What does this fold into?
Amino acid sequence: MNTGNPILEMIDSNAEAVATNTIPTGLISADSHVTEPPHCYVDYIDPKYRDRAPRVLEESDGGDSFVIDGMPGAVPMGIVAAAGKNPRDIRKGETKFADLHRGGWDGKARIQDQDQDGIVAEVIYPSVGMVLCNHYDTDYKQACMWAYNRWMSEEFMAPAPDRLLGLGQTAVRSISEAIEDFRQLKEMGFRGVMMPGNPGTEEDYDHPSFDPLWRAAVELDLPLSFHILTSRSDGPNSVGKAGERASTHRGPAQNASQALLKSIQDIIGIFVWGRIFERHPDLKVVCVEADAGWLPHFLYRMDHGYKRHRFWMKVGDMQRLPSEYVSENVYLTFQDDWTAFRMVDMMNPRRLMWANDFPHSDSTWPWSRDLLKVQTTHLTDEQKSWILRDNAAALYKVARP
It folds into this structure.
């Protein structure tokens, strides 16, 4: 049956698997999002920046968008909260905030959304905050991120902190400030930190001056997350140093979405080739929403480059192969990536974490359980439990009943 919804079509064409395959109860989504409400930044930001705080404005098509001072374009509500819609009905604009899933900004309502999809806990990222990661003004960015942190802590997470697992944000203006941010976020109950793809410092993350920050993350037991669309070279969110649009893809706009994996692969490379994992073997990095089916080949290329070219490239000897560092220190989240499930035996299954991406347009909600029954028929019960629940529970210290 051609419904226009590929998820429902896959489920419908695999009715036997849906009826017979079992998946564990108590799923954990390792990557979900909030839809920041209109008052999030205006009410919680440092008064110095209140006049410039991100805010919701009505577009010419009648839909609502978040407008961020100093950033090109806007964040349309139509694709930020399109979970459960037929792809034919998804609109970039023409959508009012009042028509969105209430669970996108109301923690109590979010629990009902979780229950509908068989979810017992979610690791929750921002939506507008993703775009803010690329703002050129680090002072403004820091003020916005801390407005978000306060709103998350005081409003959204408060109804169910054991099920609404928020990640805090920092602009990384300096290493010393970021360390203090880590400490405050830990005290506020955040389970990890969502890092901007590019720090607000002159040095990049592979510079040895960042070692105290990585030590702090380990000591505080805070996993560090890097999400797609949060690097300056990242597709539609890419900007220049003056805040201008700086397209980094060739050809039609859809080609930008194909390039989103590159920024995440760059992050992995920085941490491996920069010897960060070698110096900090207990550091945990989470690469978010970039899928995982590509990883086996990526690991092969890293090891090939190391074995074949490290001498003339002056890489030097490493204590372990690059693939070993990735397999131990890097977690990957994915939602509707059936290739990742097919490649499980070529990766470390203890570092794969499924997600439903609610309420974004890529979300598998509210059909996640039936879709997973289709995609996991070849996995053992142990592998299914690891990927769909236990890996995230262990990483984020989720209490299991």
The first strand starts at residue 27 and ends at 33.
